[in-house]
Amino acid sequence: MGKGALTYEMLRPNARIGDTIACDRKGLMSWGIKIFTLSKYNHTAVIYVSDDHDAVWIAEMLQGKGLLWTPASDWVRDKLNRGIGLRYCFRPTGTNDEESMTEFMIKSRASHLKYGWNSLLKILVGQALRLRYNTTSLVCSTFAQSIHEVGGYQGYAVLADPDDVQEHSQITFKIKKAKND
């Protein structure tokens, strides 16, 4: 785990596809997720970086909305301005097949993925019983898990919750506001 906090602008040059941002969001649903999964975090978003590193996007699964893509700088600024705690998580060691991760993310975007409420229930049960089984749809943490596994990482023993995604990362840093924000 990294020490201290960095701004998004400091992290951006090192961003790679499959990196994630763990979120400590506010609200009743977010609180419920933390309670039922025994997680410090209640949401996970995934980084997508264009081939030329010119564009960095956030891809996230949101309840009621499905898969959304937002420019990373706008997304981070919005979350920090709303008081949401963010932790940048470099993708797990062994997640190296960037071509497969890119293909998976682009296909996911084109297919207009819907949020998997049934998967959320399976995650809650799976976490409580320490089980792993297939799901037919995705939530934020299983979307990140799928990207990592497509990229070659095989370290997840159970269906991932937001803490699992963060814990499998090699290095993490808290994201703080830039001085001019």
Radius of gyration based on Cα positions: 15 Å
User: How would you name the oligomeric state of the polypeptide chains in this document?
Assistant: single chain
CATH architecture: Alpha-Beta Complex
Distance between the termini: 26 Å
* DSSP helix fraction: 25-40%
For the record, what is the CATH homologous superfamily label? endopeptidase domain like (from Nostoc punctiforme)
CATH fold node name: endopeptidase fold (from Nostoc punctiforme)
Query: Strand pairing plus helix content: what structural class?
Result: alpha+beta
| Proportion of beta-strand residues | 15-25%
**Integer average pLDDT:** 85
The helix-strand sequence is EHEHEEEHEHHHHE
Given as residue ranges, the uncertain stretches (5+ residues, pLDDT < 50) are: none
Overall 3D geometry? globular
Q: How many alpha or pi helices?
A: 7
Strand order of the largest sheet: 1-7-6-2-3-4-5
Q: Please report the first level of CATH classification, the CATH class.
A: Alpha Beta
**Largest pleated sheet:** 7 strands, mixed
Strand tally: 7
Topology:
Layout: E1 5-7, H1 8-11, E2 20-24, H2 28-37, E3 43-49, E4 56-62, E5 66-71, H3 72-81, E6 85-89, H4 98-110, H5 117-129, H6 140-150, H7 162-167, E7 172-176
Parallel strand pairs: 1-7
Antiparallel strand pairs: 2-3, 2-6, 3-4, 4-5, 6-7
Structure description:
This protein is of the alpha+beta class. It has one domain: endopeptidase fold (from Nostoc punctiforme). It is built from seven helices and seven strands. It has a seven-stranded mixed sheet, sandwiched between helices. β3 and β4 form a beta hairpin. The model has no long low-confidence stretch (mean pLDDT 85).
